[in-house]
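Narrative summary of target 7.
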Amino acid sequence: MRHVSKFSHDDGGSALIEAAIAIPVALTLLVGIVDFGLAYVALATAQKSTQDAVRYLTTLPPGAICGWGLDRARNLALYGSIDNTGTPLVRNWTASQITLATPSCPASTASTIRIKADVPYNPMMWTAVGLPSSITMKVDYEARWIGG
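Modeled conformation, tokenized:
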């Protein structure tokens, strides 16, 4: 009985127990914040590169918008250049996820050019807190066609 009484008044290991509880919670919060930040960076990068692709298409003649111009615009959005080389600006983003919303192809004349894109993101930590293991963010940009 004397040992039990002595043990109940000893607080020598309480810091270790508190650390064992607090550190995983703090790390989970930290990784979650970093994960949301990476998702925001992916979305902002996709928005900016889609904007560049639309601006490129607005300078082309209408016959090129649905052909080689669209291919180059997709490359511009994906890689930052009109060549089909390099690493994608956003991980797991493909050309098939970038679509021309207006005009309908083949384009004879165009008043506005609009591109829509689905941007995938695979978070590191979201499933640990019950969020989905992958999300698709939407990007949409439109500009007036000025012709080429």
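The longest strand covers residues 112-121.
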